[in-house]
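RECORD TYPE: inverse folding
INPUT: structure tokens
STRUCTURE:
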């Protein structure tokens, strides 16, 4: 999942209490906590930033917290989890149903976390969902 942000956005997110991660641009390594970098990292070129999305563990399965309405951006691909038939719908336009799904906690930022959330919900209720459900 690509959620790169600029140094200015990273600094603003940090001021809002978000957890910001950093790494040298082009580095294949994972992002690291900001405490691994000097405070001047925001003013120097050559670094990229992202916001660490909080995770939840349910029934032994860890996935990112569902998307909130404040995080949603028009035109962004999001992944709506349906429980009546184990499937995930990719949506990139705002509808009343999408807003209700976001507000109910059934929308993720990427397909992998949507699958994990659906599997965790099913497992918590005593059911096992196979890995072959649809992402439409």
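DESIGNED SEQUENCE:
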């Amino acid at each position: 999942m690509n959620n790169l942000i600029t140094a200015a956005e990273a600094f603003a997110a940090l001021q809002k209490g978000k957890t910001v991660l950093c790494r040298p641009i082009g580095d294949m390594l994972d992002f690291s906590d900001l405490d691994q970098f000097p405070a001047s990292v925001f003013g120097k070129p050559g670094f990229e930033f992202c916001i660490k999305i909080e995770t939840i563990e349910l029934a032994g399965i860890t996935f990112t917290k569902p998307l909130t309405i404040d995080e949603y951006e028009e035109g962004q691909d999001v992944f709506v989890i349906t429980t009546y038939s184990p499937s995930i719908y990719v949506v990139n336009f705002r509808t009343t149903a999408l807003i209700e799904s976001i507000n109910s906690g059934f929308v993720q930022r990427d397909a992998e976390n949507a699958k994990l959330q659906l599997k965790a919900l099913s497992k918590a209720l005593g059911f096992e969902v196979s890995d072959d459900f649809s992402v439409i």
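NOTES: The longest helix spans residues 111-124.
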